[in-house]
Design a protein that fits this description.
about 850 residues; alpha+beta; disordered N terminus; 28 helices; globular; six-stranded mixed barrel; about 55% helix
């Protein structure tokens, strides 16, 4: 286009303009000398006649700009009319581009919301987060906040569930304990009321609570008078002081309440040992990130010395400060980049199809373009006109793609795991619109440039003499090159195949228990019911006995930590014969407190020793998993061995070995988890009884059909006990692989789209090739060629394209699938079977796409084909 040429040839244009002005001035000077004027007077008159040189130049530039805009408008109008005359071509091109651009826009909207959009906090670039490890004690949090001079630190607990009673139906709600300065550090202002004040996270401070916007709407109907209301949270009265804005969802979109952490140095068990406390902070005025990181390193070095023995590996050598936004999304970043790369390949296939369509269109219009050139249209004028058509098609495809992406963002959000950070922020905003517009323009110019250049370079004389549909060898090679690219990129199906096989292997792992026909539901009695150990034991004994006699129930039991759920319990242990290394952390063991019928209900086998019974349930005994026994007592009988928590003085005796259960995730447990044990409910980890338990009920039929009956049974034992998380164990197992399943489905959908576009490209090129070779095929058939030879002729071309594309795609797949390594389970990135299936699939799609053109070629009547122009 003229503007593009002008951009790259500005110096040359200025030189031409100077030369032209100099020529006209010299010509005027010569005329005046010929008229008898002296040279000095001639120079003076020429200067007066021409005026300011720069002014003349600017007027010339204005004329050029006006001409460019006029030509642009004329080209757009002509291109629109031309495209409307060929509706089938126009619709097909727009649909192909809309698929590629729409898919990219949808994925980019997710990337934008999760990775690019600033956090909804004041001055978010000043927010930092502790990465590497988290604090495991309030004492360390206290020390970090007091000693830092460059950062204001705040902390929170991961969301947990609490009982809400005394205001309508009892409910189980999601709560997070936070340091009192959390909202101030983030710079978040409440929708109603006030945020927590300094000191409200200390022992003896008033009990207050903040509500999420969604919880305020659903539970209280958006009542503005909720401020000052008293709610019973785990039977503790708390005053509502704030309703937070709808965009505040830290630490999880599920969080409904925030309460201040109670930092109490007098409660040693909590002050020096508790669940992980993720920490973030805000740089103080004038503080730089590098200085804050250096200070953090010095402080944590001192913290490690002071709290190491009580918090077991509190700080790692790689603990540092990073961006809060990067820390929040680090677990999902790689998945998003994988999807962005995959959807970029889909766009490449769509663009290759689009370019092929444009090449074919310019070939069909060869005579028309030759006539325009013969009538005086410059090469750049033709280039601009052809590019305008490409640009209009790309913009129309972008608009349609944007509409499909807007509808697809809801499906995408539903496809990601519910705990994906910033999931609720996915949508179409100005940045997404800018991305779509830029993508459409670049697609229109970038992939319309090659056909446009070929159209502008053609020689008018041969084009006027040849048939309008003749296909030169160079043009055929361009079409074939784009098809090879489409085939090569379609090998993205290999990556999807790897994910499918990985998920299949993962879903076929034995979790260690029988998941079918088992219903689970969490029971959360209040302190008044389970504050006394004997009452709590009696409550669960009474409840399980009532459930067992219900019609349709085979067995029932309860566990404090149901496997493969977020209700994960672990402790640092010391095991007989394996004293802990004073310089290293103690082994971390998963544990569950269970009632006597739990193993039978879950079909967990007893491998040695005995199960818990009425005789042993109140004693300091423990069951260990087979892997735990093998790890710590190899070649020995674990029965009679002992273990205890590192803070405890009394040992527990191992009375049995049970089958391994997948506790943390369905795949391999993390390295830091080094075993699993069970305690009797009557004598838990600290000798106490767990109050929050998950009821598991074995049924011969559909377990969910028992949900209503079980709710009534729980209410019949105690009306104030909330019931939550009602789901079958099949659902529990399925939810445990939600993350790899979502990635698998998205990659599979993109692979399917890539195959579809690749098939369209092959079909289009072969159909056009057959059309161009009608006369040749007719001659061959008239000379005695049989249908099988014609098939080989057409399919041979398909196989050449496909073979070249597969070789290229195979090399690319070997490199690209390495980025999937961390997402795969028990399968390598070069799995031979998956590659073979993927390549065969691509070849089969190519042959299917070639079937219709081949059939049409064989069906040609030689007499008619020979007369074809």
């Amino acid at each position: 286009m003229n503007w593009l040429r002008s951009f790259f040839t500005r110096d040359s244009q200025e030189h031409d303009l100077d030369r032209e002005l100099r020529f006209h001035k010299e010509e005027a000077f010569d005329r005046k000398i010929s008229a008898g004027i002296t040279p000095q007077a001639a120079h003076r008159e020429v200067a007066i006649e021409f005026g300011g040189t720069e002014q003349i130049k600017e007027e010339c530039r204005d004329v050029q700009r006006v001409a460019f805009l006029e030509n642009l408008f004329l080209d757009a109008r002509y291109a629109s009319r031309s495209l409307m005359k060929t509706p089938s071509f126009t619709i097909l091109a727009i649909l192909i581009l809309s698929l590629g651009i729409g898919a990219n826009t949808a994925i980019f909207s997710v990337v934008n919301a999760i990775l690019l959009r600033p956090l909804p906090f004041a001055d978010p670039d000043r927010l930092v987060a502790v990465t590497g490890f988290t604090v495991r004690s309030q004492a360390a949090l206290d020390a970090l906040r007091n000693e830092s001079k460059l950062v204001d630190y705040a902390a929170y607990t991961q969301s947990s569930e609490v009982n809400l009673t005394g205001d309508g139906e009892p409910a189980r709600v999601v709560s997070s304990s936070v340091s009192a300065n959390l909202f101030a550090v983030l710079g978040v202002k409440p929708r109603l009321g006030r945020t927590f004040r300094d000191g409200e996270d200390r022992s003896g401070a008033p009990k207050v609570i903040a509500l999420s916007h969604s919880f305020w709407q659903t539970r209280f109907g958006g009542d503005p008078n909720v401020i000052g209301k008293i709610l019973l949270i785990d039977e503790e009265p708390r005053e509502v002081v704030a309703v937070m804005p709808p965009e505040f969802r830290l630490p999880s979109p599920k969080t409904q309440l925030w309460v201040p952490i109670t930092i109490n140095p007098g409660a040693a068990a909590i002050y020096y040992w508790m669940d992980n406390l993720p920490i973030f902070g805000r740089l103080r005025p004038g503080a730089e990130p590098a200085s804050a990181r250096a200070e953090f390193g010095l402080i944590t070095g001192r913290l490690k010395e002071r709290f190491y023995r009580r918090s077991w590996g509190l700080w790692g050598n790689d603990a540092t400060l990073g961006s809060l936004r990067d820390t929040m999304v680090k677990d999902v970043r790689k998945r998003l980049f994988l999807l962005l790369g995959a959807v970029g390949l889909v766009l490449l296939i769509a663009c290759a199809n689009f370019a092929n369509l444009l090449v074919v269109r310019t070939i069909v219009r060869r005579k028309e373009l030759a006539v325009r050139a013969a009538l005086g249209a410059s090469r750049f004028r033709l280039l601009q006109q052809v590019l305008m058509e490409s640009l209009l098609l790309a913009m129309a495809g972008g608009i349609l793609g944007l509409a499909s992406a807007w509808a697809g963002t809801t499906l995408l959000a539903a496809g990601f795991p519910a705990d994906t950070p910033r999931l609720a922020e996915i949508g179409i905003d100005l940045r997404v619109l800018e991305f779509t517009a830029a993508l459409s323009i670049l697609t229109g110019i970038g992939f319309g440039l090659i056909p446009a250049l070929r159209a502008s370079r053609q020689d008018a004389q041969p084009a006027l003499r040849e048939g309008a549909r003749s296909l030169a060898g160079g043009q055929r090679s361009i079409l074939g090159t784009f098809v090879v690219i489409e085939i090569a990129v379609s090998v993205i199906v290999v990556g999807a195949g790897l994910m499918v096989k990985s998920l299949w292997l993962l879903s076929n792992i034995n979790p260690g228990f029988e998941a079918s026909h088992v219903l689970s539901m969490q029971i959360t009695p209040n302190e008044s019911l389970c504050g006394d150990q004997a009452h709590c034991i009696a409550y669960y004994r009474n409840l399980t006995e009532r459930v067992k006699v219900l019609p349709g129930v085979s067995n029932a039991a309860a566990v404090s930590s149901l496997a493969l759920t977020q209700d994960f319990h672990n402790f640092a242990a010391e095991l007989e014969g394996h004293p802990n290394d004073p310089g290293g952390p103690a082994p971390m063991l998963w544990f569950g407190e269970i009632t006597t019928e739990y193993l039978q209900t879950m079909t967990i086998p007893l491998l040695a020793g005995e199960r818990f019974s009425a005789a042993t349930a109140g004693q300091p005994v423990v069951l260990v998993s087979a892997t735990t026994a093998k790890r710590y007592w190899p070649g020995q009988s674990p029965i009679g061995k002992h273990l205890r928590g590192v803070w405890q003085t009394k040992w527990r005796r191992v009375i049995g070995v049970v089958g391994d259960v997948k506790t943390f995730e369905l795949g391999a447990d993390p390295e830091w988890l080094q075993g699993a044990v069970y305690f009797p409910h009557q004598n838990g980890l600290d000798g106490n009884t767990a109050s929050i338990m998950t009821l598991v009920v074995k049924t011969p039929g559909d377990p969910l059909a028992m949900a209503a009956t079980l709710r009534k049974t729980v209410a019949g034992v105690s009306v104030d006990v909330p019931v939550s998380h009602i789901q079958s164990l099949d659902e529990v197992v399925s939810n445990s692989i939600a993350e790899p399943r979502s990635l698998m489905w998205l990659l599979t959908a993109l692979a399917g789209l890539a195959l579809l576009l690749g098939a369209v490209g092959i079909y289009g090129v072969l159909s056009y090739t057959v059309t161009q070779r009608v006369r040749e095929i007719g001659v061959r058939m008239a000379l005695g060629a049989v249908p099988s030879q014609i098939r080989i002729l057409i399919l041979g071309q398909t196989l050449r394209y496909t073979g070249a594309g597969l070789v290229l795609g195979l090399a690319g797949a070997v490199v690209a699938t390495r980025f999937l390594r961390s997402q795969l389970f028990q399968i390598g990135t070069t799995d031979t079977m998956t590659y073979c299936i993927g390549l065969i699939t691509v070849m089969a799609v190519a042959l299917i796409a070639a079937w219709a053109p081949t059939r049409r070629a064989v069906a040609l009547d030689p007499a008619i084909a020979i007369r074809e122009d």
